[in-house]
Amino acid sequence: MTVSRKPLALITALVGALAVSTASADLVFHDDFEGETIDANPDTPIVGDPWVNIGTLTGHTISANPLVDADNPSSLVLKSHRAGGAAGRAFIDLTLEQSARIQAGELLTVRFQHYQPDPSRSSIAFAIYQNDFFDFSENAVDVEFHVNREVKHYKDAINNFETTGLFGTDGWDEVELIVDYAADRWSVSLNGGTPVGNLPFRNDGDYMTAATLLISPSVSQMTGYTDNIRVYIGAVPTPTTNADFDADGDVDGDDLLRWQRGFGIASGATLGQGDADGNGAVDAADLAAWKTKFGGPAVAAVPEPAALAPAAVAAAACAAALRRPGRRAADRRQ
Fold first, then answer.
1. Which of 102, 265, 308, 329 is 20 to 30 A from 159 via CA?
2. How far apart are CA 58 and CA 55, in angstroms?
3. Which residues, 6 or more positions from 194, have their beta carbon under 8 angstroms from its beta carbon?
4. pTM above 0.70, yes or no
């Protein structure tokens, strides 16, 4: 099925002025765990072994993905399990040079996917340290998935938790942490949603000598899964989108029709309804993602919000035009 050339040309012209962000950041670490070892497949060279396991009960193994779906089709993921006793901890060591960049004011962005299969039990803790002492009491940032998948963080002391108001889903969640060390503040967001920001460091010694990132089971008798860990230093990396709304492997007119039918959904939208950026809404940003990758792969850069405003009304007009009586029948005859 294809759409008529007139609406397609009109939409292309209307979204042509949308500015796509070219902000870049240095990817300093990535692990998708597909190599069956904890330090498999970094996209960029890492000095030394970035993974350090400590504790008598490490609890971290490479496992088959328990929930293969559109959000995470990976075959292998990191499984964190704690049967009892002390928690095993896995650290990612950043280099001295990378740590110095963070202390000098460059942003640290961490993205990873998380799956919490049992909402009745807390899941993993993800922490950021200012040093490589592996002292659990010295972390600056701690974010954890608790009962009912509620996302909490340390407020001012160990185990003094404060809610972020965010809740995970019953599937894979995309987690993003952005740390502004110079401003002593950080933020967290889920699935491309609005970040909960201006969160304080629990511990700030005004140094970032050898930054480390920790993954650890947060309580006994729990299992959590982590995948696709990415660590960036510099500008916040532009999110990616999936414009293949009908999941047939390409981006074409059929995907545009999916977006058109879903346009205007304000929350709870799915990829199949035209939500390219995963924020639960079907809007001009999703149309821009489709336009960018029309005829090619399904991944595109997310336009900056300011660039979307001028096109929002035009996008709505396009959707209205496509909804006119007889339009779909006419399209099918083209």
1. 102
2. 6
3. none
4. no
CATH 2.60.120.200 fits 25-234, yes or no: yes
- H or E element at residue 134: none
Number of Cβ within a 10 Å radius of residue 188 = 21
Q: Mapping DSSP to helix (H, G, I), strand (E, B) and coil, where does residue 312 land?
A: helix
Angle, CA 202 vertex, CA 200 and CA 204 arms, to 5°: 90
Amino acid making up residue 290: W
* Burial of 332 (C-beta count, 10 Å sphere; 0-12/13-18/19+): exposed
295-321 core/surface letters (b: 16 or more CB in 10 A; e: else): eeebebbbbeeebbeebeebbeebbee
8 Å CB contact between 281 and 265: yes
pLDDT in tens, the chain (334 residues): 444 444 444 444 434 433 333 446 888 877 777 765 554 444 333 333 445 554 434 577 788 999 988 778 788 888 888 877 666 677 787 888 888 898 888 999 999 999 999 999 998 888 888 776 555 567 888 899 999 999 999 887 778 899 999 999 999 999 999 999 888 899 999 988 889 999 988 766 656 666 777 787 777 778 899 988 888 899 887 766 788 888 777 888 998 999 999 998 877 677 888 888 776 778 877 887 888 778 875 554 444 444 444 444 455 555 555 444 443 333 333 3
